[in-house]
Amino acid sequence: MDYKSIEQLIKTMDGTNLTHLEIEKDGLKIKIKKEKEMVSISSIEPKIQTIKEINPIKEETLVEVTPKEEIKEGTIVKSPIVGTFYNSPSPEANPFVEVGSRVKKGDTLCIIEAMKLMNEIEADTDGEVVEVFVKNEELVEYNEPLFRIKS
C-alpha cells in the first residue's frame, strides 16, 4: 500500500460517518481514527418574569402607638469626651451634685478623666439635677448622657 492509497482512504473516510477504520494488507496494519467534531449550539432563552397578583388590603388596620417612656423635661448634659466619670474631686470628698441639687450655669457637675487629664464638666443652665445617668468611676462614651437638669 503506497502513500496515495492511504491518502485516498483518509479522504474517503472523511466523507463518511465512520469514526474508526482498521486495514491489514501484506503484513501492513493501518488504523485510522476520526474524532467526532463537537458542534456547540447555544440558544438564548428569554426569561419570562411572572407577576403575581397581590391581594388588595380589605381592612384598614389602625395601630395605636403608645410611648414607652413619658418624655421627661429638662436639659441633658452629655459627655464631650470619652473617659472615666468622677462625681467628686477626690475619693473622700462629697459629690459635686446629686439628684435634687440646685445648680447654676457654670457650676461643676463632675470630672471626666481622659488621658490623665481631669476635665471639669459644667452646667449649661440653671436648675435642679433630676437625674444622674452614670455611676462614679464608670467609663463614659462621647455624647453619652450624664445628667438631666430641670429648669
Shape: elongated
Number of domains: 2
| Average pLDDT, all residues | 83
Widest sheet: strand order? 3-10-8-5
Q: Helix- and strand-based class?
A: mainly beta
Number of helices: 1
Q: How many angstroms separate the termini?
A: 118 Å
Corresponding CATH architecture of the largest domain: Beta Barrel
Strand and helix order: HEEEEEEEEEE
Helix content, binned percent: under 10%
Quote the beta fraction. Answer: 25-35%
User: What is the CATH first-level class name of the largest domain?
Assistant: Mainly Beta
Give the low-pLDDT segments: none
CATH superfamily of the largest domain: RNA polymerase II/Efflux pump adaptor protein, barrel-sandwich hybrid domain
- What is the name of the CATH topology of the largest domain? OB fold (Dihydrolipoamide Acetyltransferase, E2P)
**Biggest sheet details:** 4 strands, antiparallel
| Strand segment count | 10
What layout of secondary structure does this protein have?
Layout: H1 3-14, E1 20-25, E2 28-33, E3 75-78, E4 83-86, E5 102-103, E6 108-114, E7 117-122, E8 127-132, E9 139-140, E10 145-150
Antiparallel strand pairs: 1-2, 3-10, 4-6, 4-9, 5-8, 6-7, 8-10
In short:
It is built from 1 helix and 10 strands. It is mostly beta strands.
Account of the 3D structure:
The chain is mainly beta and 151 residues long. The protein folds into two domains: 3-33, no CATH class; 75-150, OB fold (Dihydrolipoamide Acetyltransferase, E2P). It is built from one helix and ten strands; from the N terminus they run αββββββββββ. The protein has a four-stranded antiparallel sheet, with no helix packed on it. It has a four-stranded antiparallel sheet with strand order 7-6-4-9, with no helix packed on it.
